[in-house]
Amino acid sequence: MASIFTRIMQGELPGHFVWEDDRCVAIMTLNPMKPGHLLVIPREEIDHWDDLPAALSAHLMSVSQKLAKALKRAFPCERVGIMIVGLEVPHVHLHLVPIEAMQDIRLEGLPQAEPDALAQAAARIREALV
Question: Is the separation of the CB atoms in 53 and 107 below 8 Å?
Fold first, then answer.
């Protein structure tokens, strides 16, 4: 069965897209740690990040760096944290989170964001991409 991310990429489920190319997408997460929290996801369904082909892994990191620069412009922050966890969805995804301190990084108990807030955050990041 297709992962939730594949279903979003195929248009079966809604998503707020920030980046799309032939190898990956970036979307806003429904439960952001901080405003601007997004996910970079390969189009190919691969469960474990250490199974990514080297070229795809490098591409994901390159895209993540571009998006991190845009995140800093759109959501001024000390750093953009990056995390790969992979326990809830069996499809590799990189979390990019604008952060000020370590306590900004947490995954549990996060409220679901309003669709309008996600759409506005996605628009700010897209506008900040240079």
Answer: no
Residue 40 Cα to chain centre, angstroms: 4
Q: Which domains does the chain have, with CATH numbers?
A: 4-128 (3.30.428.10)
Is 16 assigned a catalytic role? no
Each residue of 59-111: pLDDT tens digit? 999 999 999 999 999 999 999 999 999 889 999 999 999 999 988 888 788 88
Q: Do 97 and 80 meet the contact criterion of CB atoms below 8 Å apart?
A: yes
Annotated active-site residue in 16, 91, 93, 95: 93
* Entry pTM: 0.92
Side chain identity, residue 45: E
Sequential DSSP letters for 42-59: ESS--S-GGGS-HHHHHH
> Where does residue 15 fall: left (phi above 0), alpha (psi -120 to 50 degrees), or beta otherwise?
beta
